[in-house]
Write a structure and sequence with these properties.
five-stranded parallel sheet; 44% helix
Length: 321
Amino acid sequence: MNMDLASANYDSLRDHVNQIRFRLGELSPWHGHENVPGENVFEFVAPETELRIHGSGLGDLMIIRQFGNAFNRYVQQYGDPELGTVVVATGGWGPALHPTEGDVNLYWWWSVGSHENEPAQYLENYHREVTVRPDVVLCLSEKCQREAEQLGYDTLYFPLGTRAFEPLDVRRSGVGYAGSKGHKETQSERVVVNPVKDREDFEWVSNYVMPSQLNLWYNTKEVTLGMTKGGQKWWGMVNNRVFETLASATPLVLGKHPNVEDVLGFEYPYQTENAEETKTHVESVMANRDETREEFREMSRKVRENHSYDERVDTLVAALS
């Protein structure tokens, strides 16, 4: 087995077990956390700028790799922004609560960690427990911004995005879901995944480590499914899989999300609130292949144009300069 894949699968399983123990009150959110370069700390370096990002888990690493590559692109195109050491803590677990300290300290808030059952309490608990107070909280929604500002933080509206995902000229077939099994709440699975999981052409994957691998897999699927964790939905956060899937021009049937159209900037009708809607969307996509593919190619163009990590890096550098 590929060692990177084996390590990533082990880390994912360990994180999942720890998340269960956190919910049961057996562990604190950063129990046993240790900052390890290359494992949960990733550095992207220019002569006078070091971008140091803390994060763990397969989904988080997809974001970090793409954002780091976008920073490298910025340096190559525009030169060193000379920002000193910029530390970005991410997510809702140990890397968020116990980062190293830099000249500029940021928190990119895209998870509620162990607070899925009480998402409204997350940021207050983070505020009490974080060991390096951020100068700015990077927020995925205006609701997140309001909460962070009430606690005295400066904020920047900073949704997730995409960089490595794009349409490929490959044959598409079948229905797929990419994500850890048991990672999302059972109700979401009942609505989004269960209605189609018994199809012969259905595939559930959770073993892709690199963005290029996942992009290729998306491009082989005629339809994919998307779920959002309850805490993210409560805060109006749109997760990275939405941007990545749409950037690949792959039709996505998404569990109903109250903020997705506002964040994307266009109407998104392929949302579902029950099993019958899920089946209807999947069947509609497959019955109207040419029309649907053209529709999603246009969505891909909009997402890659308006929600690229290149654009996010430009925004961040401008804000910090």
